[in-house]
Amino acid sequence: MAHPLQLGLQDASSPIMEELLYFHDHALMIVFLISSLVLYTISLMLTTKLMHTSTMNAQMVETMWTILPAVILTSIALPSLRILYMTDEINNPLLTIKAMGHQWYWSYEYTDYTDLNFDSYMTPTLDLKPGELRLLEVDNRTVLPMETPVRMLISSEDVLHSWAVPSLGLKTDAIPGRLNQTTLSATRPGLFYGQCSEICGSNHSFMPIVLELIPLKHFETWSTLTS
Fold it and tell me: Domain Cytochrome oxidase subunit II transmembrane region profile, which positions (predicted)?
């Protein structure tokens, strides 16, 4: 999760988030190079009085400043489209979970089990235990198996919400009357925190998401005891 004074993104915990981090660094390097070139050109224009007459009417210069931006945009667009299609792929999920947004809590249903569903409310500040995070902890965590393809079906029963977990690279809108889907596969165990990322009313800030990723054998034991 994020920590105070953090400048970069959260550590990647899924293959998709790793790709997003690489793309972020790639695009940031291009922006840095362009900014350096523009700053260098401006500084030259302000500090020198020399003027080359051949640059006033040069076909080669005009051709270069037309082609070069197109090449740069292509180098950004192709990796972006690749990641966009990767986020939409659903490769034989072993588990399907339906998340429904409400004002202002989430409800989860494990569709592969007969009777395994619960509501997830934010834990009030006065009820927090030592080590738990204010405004991020919930009374019922969503337990999932790690290193396993999981399909999330996301919708809403009232207004627009958004189910987002930054460290897993997930952000999917919850729209009333529409069922959106996304997939996740965590590469390591742990607690992963998220929040509703769509302004949905007065208590929008109090809809946390907590995913608890555990090994598959422990998940099977948990599901048996819970259901």
Answer: 1-91
3-state secondary structure 26-80: HHHHHHHHHHHHHHHHHHHHHHCCCCCHHHHCCHHHHHHHHHHHHHHHHHHHHHH
**Which CATH code for domain 95-226?**
2.60.40.420
Closest CA to 172 of 227, 98, 120: 98
What is the mean pLDDT, run by run of 10 residues, along the chain of 227 residues?
A: 82 91 94 94 81 66 87 93 88 91 93 90 92 91 93 93 93 93 92 92 91 92 84
What is the pTM assigned to this prediction? 0.83
Q: Which residues, including other chains, have CB under 8 Å from residue 23's CB and lie 6 or more apart?
A: 79, 80, 83
Are residues 215 and 184 in contact, defined by beta-carbon separation less than 8 angstroms?
A: no
For the chain, give every domain's residue range: 15-48+56-88, 95-226
